Amino acid sequence: MSQLQGEIISVGAPSSNLGDYVETYDNFSWEDVEKQFSWYETGKVNLAYEAIDRHVDAGKGDQIALRFNDPTRDETYTFGDLQAKSNQFANVLRSRGISKGDRVFVFMPRSPELYVSILAIIKVGAVVGPLFEAFMETAVKDRLEDSGAVALVTTTALLPRVKRKELPLLQHLFLVGKDIVPEKGVVDYYKEMELASPEAEIEWVNREDGLILHYTSGSTGKPKGVYHVHNAMLQHYYTGKVVLDLKEGDVYWCTADPGWVTGTSYGIFAPWLHGVTNVVRGGRFSPGDWYETIQKNKVSVWYSAPTAFRMFMGAGEDIVKQYDLSTLRHILSVGEPLNPEVVRWGYKVYGHRIHDTWWMTETGGQLICNYPSMPIKPGSMGKPVPGIHAAIIDDNGKVLPPHRMGNLAIRTPWPSMMRLIWNNAPKYEEYFRIPGWYISGDTAYMDEDGYFWFQGRIDDVINSSGERVGPFEVESKLVEHPAVAEAGVIGKPDPTRGEIIKAFISLREGFAPSEELKAEISRFVKEGLSAHAAPREIEFKDRLPKTRSGKIMRRVLKAWELNLPAGDLSTIED
Ligand code: 6R9
């Protein structure tokens, strides 16, 4: 495990909002962060006001808030435009009786209308529920039903996936599209927007009032509704400052869809709380189109995911040279372990360190990060951000010393901590079963310098002949092999060893599966990491099962292996 340590990339932090790297944050206080918000003086709280209207009131109405590109649209909106449009839609919502506390869902591909809708829902004090556009019938129904949603904003194309007859509480459908047939409960989005006034009162709320409900899958059971409140804006703002390093004039691009928490906390809230230009790109991943997005929009801060960076790595260096990426200042990653190989490759090819960040839907915002002012140890998630206290604890709540693997836990509370699992108090309490701590469900260890190293989900850790093996470490090693594009590693039950390590591998362009290659890859891990970490079995696959946020679904691999049902697949890529 320790072979990754000691390797540090520490250059390249010329400027950072956190100042020079500091070891302690004795002076940190959330109250200082509160002072950044207008409600600190006025007492009037609403995240949408802080994200949009406040900038207009401060004379920045003409600055560009949103640059939207997809294969069919290329549009720019100022903060003034977003203020007017979100006011218009707020008025449309109110005309149908939508008010504070109602759950209103959005179900559409990335588009300016999606961002306007989310802002408007928040403006009227309702709780927004984002659904990923690729959800099919059951996934949509489960979430609308569980949350008791009263309204849904969707497109004519996605409408067939909404089983209205089975959802008695769903009274209003706001439809984005052409030729909408008038019908009870159906509102033509474009038509009503044209008629609506661009002026609207904001619903002032309390900091503890509902903001957003994100459904996320656990290892078992149906997806859970993770409920966040307006107070989360403290975390969004603060991490936007010290982790994303956002500054006046930045052009920021977060590649996540708002159906996932990264696409809202960091695809909407953090950048707009800072008043920077937010780039949104619709459509599918392709290395050329994505580099083109950076070049065309002059992106300076880029937040993406390991799966994308691995695909860029697979696409090679030559394509990078065809684009001007010189505007980039800061690159970040989230969602799954960022392999050291990818950090090294990014540093070589982009000239920037890719900064890993760790957090979860439940945490609402970034907690453990490589912030720009600190030296990076490739493979580590970094250190807790100021204001956050993280530790490795055992199942009884005892804090473990450095290098001992255990539960990654966070001292409660922090501003963006989830406040509820909708309709499921027992599930919520499970996370807080050890008094004073939030138990993440991830395992990790901390090194002597206070850096955290991700090991796996509790249920993914492999025990082979009494040796604990974190699948991430094996996967990281595997993708360093020139033939390996992606790898997923599971523990396969074995009568003598408890479990053996089995790797599912997709190969890079130009490599063909063979027994020789299997042996060579296994030897590569044995020689590069350790004998007990080397896969005893390898299976080549054209593609690996992934969630739409890019995580390799080890539990699906495990189900394939054991011939078991794969469980809830509502978040699988396709
Ligand atoms: C933001 C987000 C959360 C789970 C989390 C962990 C994994 C996220 C990671 C990471 C290793 C990182 N995860 N960031 N693992 N290194 N930097 O991804 O939320 O979709 O709820 O997933 O993702 O296992 O517990 P979410």
TrEMBL record:
GO molecular function, a single term: ATP binding
Domain annotation AMP-binding enzyme C-terminal: ranges: 473-551
Coiled-coil segments on the chain, per record: none
Enzyme kind, highest EC tier: ligase
Ranges where the AMP-dependent synthetase/ligase domain occurs: 58-419
Top-level taxon of origin: Bacteria
Name this polypeptide is given: acetate--CoA ligase
Naturally occurring in which organism (per UniProt): Fontibacillus phaseoli
